[in-house]
Every structure is written in structure tokens, then in C-alpha cells.
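ok trying again, last paste got cut off:
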Amino acid sequence: MKVVVVTRDDNLQKLAQDINAAAWDEGNEMSEYTSDALLAYFDRQDTLFVACYEEDAHHTLLGIASGRFEIKPYAHERWLYVDEVDVCANHRQKGVGKAIMQKLIKLAEEADCEEVWLGTEVDNQAANALYLSLEPDDVASVVGYTYEMEE
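nice, full thing came through this time. structure:
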């Protein structure tokens, strides 16, 4: 398998098709991807998107992740915030998530980040097992709040 950094210069229409055709389950809460939405994402400064593929004749999509580089408003500390790590349902327990996370951590090191930060739900046992296997420096208890805008 190979994890690659996706840029606006890549074939985003093919990527969107691959993502939409992949096997996702309700744990991924996957929305419809479009090349236009991916372009809009890349128009934002400091975004990061990676895709993991099987190195076979079909170039099968195994998983994706997105995040962004941030700078704290003090001390110029740079860090990588990982927004999503999604592994296709039929490719779990094969090292895909670990390969994606290792690539993200390497990219953060190359970008001189102080840290990588991500969160997951307390009851997401698979994600928590993955992130713990990467030996984090800290595991925090966090409460999240969502404010949905009325249409």
C-alpha cells in the first residue's frame, strides 16, 4: 500500500469517484464528494489531504485523511490538526489506518510542527486502539460541543 499527498493538481474527479464508490459504513458518516468540493478545500491555506491506495493494477482506494496546519496565536507554534481519518470498511485491520497516521506524523515533522492533534469518540474502539498503538505523548479527556445552524 502507498499513502500519497493529494493536491489540487491531481485528478480530483477520479478521486471523488473512488471515494464515493468505496465501501464505507455508518461509522464513517461519509458525505458525497465532488471535484468542486475538493478544489474548494484545497483553496484554503495549509490544508492537507492524503489517500492510501493498494499498489495493484486497479489502484484500489483503501482510505483517506484530511487535516490542516495551524499556527497558535502565541509563540508561533505550528501544529497539524487531523480532521478525519477514514478507512474503507472492507480494508480495516490491514494496517491502512496506521500507514495513514504514520504519513501524517511524518508530514507534520517535515513541516516543523510541534505536535499532531486529533480526536475521536470515546466509544470508537477501533480508532482508539489505532491511535494508542502509535504511542501518543498524551491522551486527553475532551468534551465536544456542536452548534448546528438553522437553514
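cool. The first strand starts at residue 2 and ends at 5. The CA atoms of residues 44 and 56 lie 32 Å apart.
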